Description:
Blueprint: H1 2-28, H2 33-58, H3 61-64, E1 90-93, E2 96-99, H4 106-113, E3 118-123, E4 139-145, E5 148-154, E6 162-168, E7 174-175, H5 185-191, E8 196-197, E9 207-211, E10 218-225, E11 228-236
Antiparallel strand pairs: 1-2, 1-7, 3-4, 4-5, 5-6, 6-11, 8-9, 9-10, 10-11
Amino acid sequence: MMKLKNKATAVILLSFLLTMALTGCLSNGAKSPEAAQNSAEKNSPDEQAKGEGASNSTAPASENSEGQGAEAIKEGSMEKEGNVVLKELAFVYNEHTIAISDTANEDQMEQMLGKPDNLKSHTYSAGDGTNMDTLIGFTEKVYTYPGLEIKTISIPEGKQDSIFHIEITDPKYATVRNIKAGDSLDTLKNAYPEGKLLGDGAPNEEDDFRYEPSNYVDVMSFHIKDAKVESIQIYSLLD
């Protein structure tokens, strides 16, 4: 009887010790699922902030600058500087795109279009009889080809000549939207839906169809006769 009692006491004591050991492990070791979730929510903002900071510090410059407005550059054959949005005011010949405001000296013109039939140069002065006081000191050059005339201007400070006037009557010179002399008025309207006839636009009468950007300085004008494009002028108004 005494042995049985001692054995029962030993079992109870062992159970008590095991219970105490398990309680200690739970309090010092793993947390309950609820406690673990609360802990994660508490720490996640700091960890996220650290992660975002690392991402920003290692992001490429192109990604950091994304969204900033990029300058639109004219799609001409020659290298250009500045913000020029008038890439539509141009014509194409032998895979060269020649546009208003493109820089063009005599060598460049000959490389793109060949040797001109005629080349005239004039430097404006107070006594030249042109009454162009705002252009005194400027030099204008006129390149004449069969069915094509191009005018350039250079300012007194010696900067390179730039194109300010183009007139086309030969169908071998087409605009960047592939409109050329001899095309029908309907074909022109389909290619330039933004443009408009300045007069009544009667099919059998002469009129001008104008395409121009919002700055009212640079213009493309198509002269219409017998419902066809007779000539094309692309020009920039000089100050």
